[in-house]
From TrEMBL:
Domain Major facilitator superfamily (MFS) profile: 7-445
PANTHER family found in the cross-reference section: CONSERVED TWO-DOMAIN MEMBRANE PROTEIN-RELATED (PTHR42718:SF48), MAJOR FACILITATOR SUPERFAMILY MULTIDRUG TRANSPORTER MFSC (PTHR42718)
Keyword Transmembrane helix: yes
Regions that span the bilayer: 44-62, 74-95, 107-124, 131-151, 196-214, 220-239, 260-283, 295-313, 325-344, 350-372, 393-410, 422-442
Record InterPro entries: EmrB-like, MFS, MFS_dom, MFS_trans_sf, Sugar_transporter_CS
Organism: Pendulispora brunnea
Protein name: MFS transporter
Length: 451
């Protein structure tokens, strides 16, 4: 195995750990709540919210620092922090302890994820990056999608604490392999340290926006104030970034057309991906009356489709570019949503569910990994980490929006919940993804001028 493939194997394993942990916890959440019955719903919700806010807020600055101080160093440090935090989560005696440990977990994930993508980009020549990115993204998408089945099995046959303990052997192996197999890389031009004030503004703005979104149902007035504060802080961050010599994020990156379009599409598709995942679990359990374990199994064919499609799509991207993948993938995603609209009121049958799962799994395999690749097309070696951080932060923000939008669209949980509204959202998102693909330049990965 060449050095590039060894780097990809370790990087993909780390992405698998982080992505799996996120969606497994959704299924384990009711069991955690049952363990701490004396804690309010708002207090329990911070087990999820603190991770979402911390992870999303830290992605861009940690990506920028990884470019500056060494991507391998940040990648390994993130793995160690994530594994140790997982151990603390697993032994947590109370909710405040668990919330703090989850915050530490978010720091570990934010340290390793941008560095992971940057290491893969650096390891492969431009003509092979499409395939490598396809595999890297497919592993993350697969882990996120099989989370319900894995989480339901763990909760049913063991305990929610094993959701976190599962990260330990995987994390230890990834650290050991990374130390031996990954070479260090960093930006060739070191420059000064990223702007500390700008970094603080970025973290505070994302934190306020995410807090406002996740708290919109319970405290609408406080949430609205948080969102306004977040927007104001974000505006200040942009203004400052245009004036300082070494910004936390060079916002002029968004002047690069492909980078801007790819990140806009990432926001839309992340909303749709999370809304699909979150909405499907409730649809199968509430309207079609499947158990959590059955719902996880029914969802599985979709993610099993993702990896082979993503690998094939990555290879095609090296030759034909990402534009056709977005167009076809977006249309397939819309078709899958249209099928769910058609069968939503039918009696529960796996064969009715399967066509949508396969079609949408195919679409995800074409689109989701390609978004990472397209966002990197116009980046140079000095901005791999920060560019990846931007893309992943936007995805995380889209995930927060996806959950919040589903809750609003459903109106209330139960058999009568308005799941058709969610399927319409997915249909529209698929069409917007195809439209975004149409607006991109016709180019292929190997001949991208910036790589």
């Amino acid at each position: 195995m060449t050095a590039a493939w060894r780097t990809l194997a370790v990087a993909a394993l780390a992405v698998f750990i982080v992505s799996l942990d996120t969606t497994v916890l959704f299924v384990a959440f009711p069991s955690i709540r049952a363990t701490f019955r004396d804690v309010s719903s708002e207090g329990i919700s911070w087990i999820l919210n603190v991770y979402t806010i911390g992870y999303g807020a830290l992605l861009v600055p940690t990506g920028r620092l990884a470019d500056r101080f060494g991507r391998r160093r940040f990648f390994l440090a993130g793995l160690v922090v994530f594994a140790l935090a997982s151990l603390l989560c697993g032994v947590a005696p109370n909710v405040p302890f668990l919330v703090v440990a989850r915050g530490l977990q978010s720091l570990g994930a934010a340290l390793l994820m941008p560095a992971s993508f940057a290491l893969v980009l650096h390891a492969f020549p431009s003509e092979r990056r499409g395939m490598a990115i396809g595999i890297w993204g497919a592993v993350g998408a697969l882990a996120a999608a099989i989370g319900p089945a894995v989480g339901s099995a763990i909760v049913q046959f063991a305990s929610w604490r094993w959701v976190f303990f599962l990260n330990l052997p995987l994390g230890i192996y990834a650290v050991s392999s990374g130390r031996r197999r990954i070479d260090e890389s960093r930006a060739s031009e070191q420059g000064g340290l990223p702007d500390a004030v700008g970094t603080a503004l970025l973290i505070a703005s994302f934190g306020a926006l995410a807090y406002g979104i996740v708290g919109s149902r319970e405290k609408p007035s406080t949430a609205a104030a948080a969102i306004l504060l977040g927007l104001a802080l974000l505006a200040l961050f942009v203004l400052r970034s245009l004036r300082v010599s070494v910004p936390a994020l060079d916002v002029r990156l968004f002047r690069r057309r492909t980078f801007a379009i790819a990140n806009a599409m990432s926001l839309v598709f992340s909303i749709a991906f999370t809304a699909m995942f979150f909405g499907n679990v409730f649809f199968l359990t509430e309207r079609w009356h499947r158990s959590i374990f059955e719902a996880g199994l029914w969802i599985s064919p979709g993610p099993l489709t993702v990896i082979p499609v993503a690998i094939f799509a990555g290879r095609r991207a090296d030759r034909i570019g990402y534009r056709p993948l977005f167009i076809v993938g977006g249309l397939l995603y819309a078709m899958g949503a249209a099928w769910m609209l058609h069968v939503a009121n039918e009696d529960a049958r796996f064969l009715l569910w399967l066509p949508s799962a396969i079609v949408m799994g195919t679409a995800i395999g074409m689109v989701l990994p390609s978004l990472s690749g397209a966002s990197a097309l116009e980046l140079d070696a000095a901005t791999f980490g920060v560019g990846s951080g931007v893309n992943q932060a936007i995805r995380q923000f889209g995930s927060v929006l996806g959950v919040a939008i589903v809750v609003v669209l459903l109106g209330r949980f139960g058999e009568a919940a308005r799941f058709e509204r969610v399927f319409v959202l997915l249909l529209v998102a698929g069409l917007l993804t195809a439209l975004g693909g149409l607006t991109m330049r016709v180019t292929n990965v190997a001949h991208s001028h910036s790589l």
